[in-house]
Amino acid sequence: MTTTPPPTPSSASTPAGDPADVPATLTAGDPADSRADSPAADTAAGDLPQHLALVCSQFSRLAARRSEVGVGTVSWRVVATIERYGPLRLSEIADRERVSRPTATAVIKRLEEEGLVRREADPDDSRSSLVSTTAQGSAQLVAWREQLAVGVGGLLEQLPAEDHAVLERAAGILSALVDAHDS
Description:
Elements: H1 48-67, H2 73-85, H3 90-97, H4 101-113, E1 117-122, E2 125-133, H5 135-156, H6 161-181
Antiparallel strand pairs: 1-2
């Protein structure tokens, strides 16, 4: 069993949710940096997949809370998914967003009423429809992304340049993994 040394003054954390809860340094070099009290310090190499998925999910929720996009995360995620992949069937939207078909139907109905998406007949299956974004939906997605950038930007601006470089690299790696495995 390993023991964790007591936190140093530079690694002490503040209450969760406080903008100052971002560690002063997240160094790219030494994995045993000054954040000995952080959950990441206790993550064994075999736990990386679970830890990474959890932290990415938590960060995504934090970004949404700080960004005041005015809608639930499901709404802007669905619009972003449709924008990225083009017209999709309701079942494809439900699968991609990991929600039930009735939830996807309700979200699409609401987004359609707001003018953000439209349904059109599926040329390959007359029993189905394809959902695509409207010009208004694409414009709203740009606005939501700008609001997310502002909300997250406040957190990131507190970090030193080295940490920005680490996060840029990590974001690129994660983006490549998503592109390669989320077809």
